[in-house]
Amino acid sequence: MLIHLEKSPIYEITVPSKTYSYLAVGKPILAAVSGETARLLEGIGAGIVCDPGDPQILAQAVLRFFRLSEEERTKMGKRGQKLLLKIMHQTFYWVNTKNCLNRR
Length: 104
Known about the structure:
The protein is mostly helical and about 100 residues long. The protein is built from five helices and three strands.
């Protein structure tokens, strides 16, 4: 799956929702991004990240991506999916806790 985001101050501090959708699918991500999205994907090892805006660097990242074994690409996808499920579980837990406390 490919995410390409232009360099923008907003992307330095936010993660676009499509990133979470891609993680949910459980496939490895090739991302030409910077900022918070890059930190998230690199931190969990959910794919290959490169700097946006440079076609040569993106081409090199594509080659690195396709040189990975099927096993490593599968692991990347599963790591991303696992993190997303953990985030969703925590969110669900806190929303339910808040709702229970508000009923009292």
